[in-house]
Specification:
The structure is a single chain. The protein contains six helices and two strands. By secondary structure, it is an all-alpha fold. The protein has two domains: 71 residues, no CATH class; 55 residues. Strands 1-2 form a two-stranded antiparallel ribbon. Helix 4 runs parallel beside helix 6. The radius of gyration is 20 Å and the shape is elongated. The model has no long low-confidence stretch (mean pLDDT 90). It binds zinc ion. The site of zinc ion has 8 residues, from loops. Zinc ion binds next to loops.
């Protein structure tokens, strides 16, 4: 069984990336990296007990940059470790940007910018020419 300690209230939960059953906290972005650090992916059981005691005592959990980097690499959320989009996904983003709206690429960029940075910038790059084309079209029609 997998174990993680809630960063906010210190309760035990099944996985670092799920909603806390005690307080309803759902970590996101950098918080997800901190949540990963407070799970059995990173800590032994007795270390989790110690972390739990710290959270319950109200001590802030503030991992240093090195620890955050370890967590982000494990979660594959750094630019170097994110595999990016597949060819089919790239063609899909490009087709949506050209046929529908370049906002698709912008939305993907915004949604993925912390969790999948490489994929986010690929989506942004694919929608950029369509954004320019739409802007020119709007200026031409106006
Ligand atoms: Zn909680």
């Amino acid at each position: 069984m997998s174990r993680a300690v809630c960063v906010r209230c210190g309760a035990d939960r099944m996985a670092y990336n799920q909603v806390c059953p005690a307080c309803g906290f759902l970590p996101d972005g950098d918080g997800l990296a901190v949540a990963w650090l407070l799970s059995d992916n990173h800590l032994a059981d007795h270390e989790l007990d110690a972390a739990q005691a710290r959270v319950r005592a109200g001590d802030p959990i503030e991992p240093n940059a090195k620890m955050l980097k370890i967590a982000k690499q494990a979660l594959r959320t750094t630019f170097a470790t994110d595999p990016g989009l597949t060819t089919a996904q790239r063609l899909g983003v490009l087709a949506c940007s050209l046929v529908l709206t370049p906002l698709v690429g912008w939305t993907l960029w915004w949604t993925w910018r912390t969790r999948r940075p490489r994929a986010a910038w690929q989506a942004f790059a694919l929608s950029a020419p369509a954004t320019l084309a739409f802007a020119v079209l709007v200026l031409y029609l106006a």
